[in-house]
Amino acid sequence: MAGAEKTRLRRKTFEVLRHLVAGPGQLVTKEALLDGVWAEAAVSDSMPSICVAELREALGDDARTPTLIETVHGRGYRFIAQVVTTTGSDPAPKYRAVAPEPAIIMVGREAELAQLHGWFARIRGGQRRVVFVAGEPGIGKTTVVKSLSRFRSSGTGYPNRLWPMHRAVRRW
After folding, report:
1. Which residue has the higher pLDDT, 162 or 20?
2. 109 contacts 140 by C-beta, under 8 angstroms
3. Rounded to whole angstroms, what are the CA distances from 76 to 43, 79, 116?
4. Sheet strands (E) in the chain
5. How far apart are CA 106 and CA 111, in angstroms?
6. Which residue, among 165, 147, 169, 142, has the nearest Cα to 157 in the 3D structure?
C-alpha cells in the first residue's frame, strides 16, 4: 500500500473505515458502527462485518494475521495500523462531494404519520408507550420510520431516549 493505487469502496464501507481510523488502537463496537454509519436505516447487524470484509479485501489485509483491522470477537473491531496525517507540502487530497440524501417522498401516509407524531407527543409528555410499525412488505413502513428518524435528527424532533427499542428491533 504505497498510496499510488486508487481503490473504490462503497460509501458505507468507507464510512466504517473512517470510524475505525478516527480512533486508532481503540475498540469500535458493532453497536457504535451501526449507530454511526446506519443511524437512520434498519439494517442487519451483520453489516459491519460485511464492510470490514470488503475493507480487508480492498486493502489486502488478512483477518487471521491482521496488519490493519483487528477483530475483537464478540465486541467489534480495532484499527491497529499507525495513522499518519500529513500537512504542508503534500497536496490536499481531492474528494468528490457526496450529494445530500434525497427527500423522502410519501404518498397516502399522512394519517399514519399524524398518528405516530401524536403518540410521540404523548411520550414526550411523560406517558409510556410502545409503538410497532408493522404491515405487508413494500407498503412503506421503512419510509415512515425514516421520516420520523429525520424529524428526530433535525434537532426539532424526538429525543434520543425514544429510539433504543428502534435500534434493538431493527437488529432482530
Report:
1. 20
2. yes
3. 17, 10, 34
4. 27-29, 69-72, 76-79
5. 11
6. 147
| Cα separation values, 112 from 55, 130, 153, Å | 40, 15, 20
Number of H helices, E strands in the chain: 6, 3
Instruction: Quote the CA–CA distance of 73 and 165 in Å, as a whole number.
Output: 25
Break the chain into its structural domains and give their ranges. Answer: 11-79, 110-170
First CA to last CA distance, the chain: 38
Give every CB contact of residue 170 below 8 A, 6+ residues apart in sequence: 42, 43
Pick from 87, 90, 95, 101: nearest CA to 143: 101
Query: Would you say 58 and 7 are in contact if contact means Cβ atoms under 8 Å apart?
Result: yes
Interval 33-54 mean pLDDT: 88
| Mean pLDDT of the region 28-45 | 86
Give the C-alpha separation, 90 to 110, whole Å.
53
CATH number listed for the domain at residues 11-79: 1.10.10.10
Q: pLDDT band for position 17 (50/70/90)?
A: very high
